[in-house]
Amino acid sequence: MALSRDEIMEKVREALVDALGVDEDEVTPEARIGGDLGAESIDYLDIVFRLEKAFNIKIPRGDLFPDNILSSDEFVQDGKLTEKGLAELKARLPYADLSQFEQNPNVQDIADLFTVDMIVGYVESKLGGEEG
Fold first, then answer.
1. pLDDT tens, 35-52?
2. Taking burial as the number of CB atoms within 10 A of a residue's CB, which of 12, 14, 54, 63 is the most buried?
3. CA distance readout (Å), 51 to 54, 97, 105, 116
4. Phi-psi sector, 62: left (phi>0), alpha (psi -120 to 50), beta
5. Which superfamily does 5-125 belong to?
């Protein structure tokens, strides 16, 4: 049986509370994983591991947090994502809201895209894609 978005949110919240040692009430849909919840690069691996376990899904490296985009000259120039980089990011993160980021695509701001709601959307897409 498919999980509801609320049920997914609850499991994502548990994973983030366990991985980051934050309070449950801090894990709101709009909370940024790094900016608001204090995740550092090593934490992202732990988050992915906990999500895989909680939802019994496989999350390929770079799928949820596509850091490899940032290391490509094709996608990044002068500290900003190029048109091609933005297109790649949109393709890789269809569940993220890029509307603000697109106006000024600074690489240093990319972490702000990773919100709790984005993770819920990602998990939802993975679960939906594996059934049927």
1. 999 999 899 999 999 999
2. 12
3. 5, 21, 28, 12
4. left
5. ACP-like (1.10.1200.10)
Q: How many whole angstroms from its chain centre is CA 39?
A: 12
Could you count the other beta carbons within 10 Å of the beta carbon of residue 46?
A: 15
SS (H, E, C) the chain: CCCCHHHHHHHHHHHHHHHHCCCHHHCCCCCECCCCCCCCHHHHHHHHHHHHHHHCCCCCCCCCCCHHHHHCCCCEECCEECHHHHHHHHHHCCCCCCHHHHHCCEHHHHHHHCEHHHHHHHHHHHHHHHCC
- Rounded CA-CA distance 79/29 in Å is 28
* Cα–Cα dist 76/42, whole Å: 23
Q: Name the pTM for this structure.
A: 0.87
